[in-house]
Amino acid sequence: MPDLGYDLLALETFGGQLNTVKQGLEESHSTIDSYDSDYGHASVRDAMHHFEKHWRDGRKHVQNTAESLASMVTEAVKAYTKVDEDLARQITAGTQTQGQR
């Protein structure tokens, strides 16, 4: 039977990346607004706001998914860390018990 292996640093990094994606999506509305004076013609500005308004539902879904995944990754890191700590304690206790025989 193969041993369970996992990369906690990679999981933590992934969780951080998911949070960055979520934050970027949250800020995208203000980013579009910040360019209002740079679009030139009002029709371009209106088209960008129209796009952003209709993109909101899909963006919200991606934000929610990223948030859920980031939470799952955080919980997985906590669980794996606890398993490692518990296993280390059990091994230490078992080693000490065998040494006393």
User: What proportion of the residues is helical, as a percent range?
Assistant: over 70%
Report the average pLDDT across residues: 86
Low-confidence stretches: none
Question: What general form does the structure show?
Answer: rod-shaped
Series of secondary-structure elements, N-terminal to C-terminal: HH
Radius of gyration: 24 Å
How many DSSP helices? 2
How many separate domains make up the residues?
Answer: 1
Record field, number of beta strands: 0
What structural class results from the helix and strand content? mainly alpha
Strand-residue fraction?
Answer: under 5%
Tell me the major beta sheet: none
Distance between the termini: 30 Å
Keywords:
single chain; mainly alpha; 0% strand; rod-shaped
Describe the structure.
The chain has 101 residues and is mostly helical. The protein has one domain. It is 84% helix and 0% strand. It has two helices and no strands. It has helices spanning 8-34, 42-99. Helix 1 (8-34) packs antiparallel against helix 2. It is rod-shaped. The two termini are 30 Å apart. The model has no long low-confidence stretch (mean pLDDT 86).
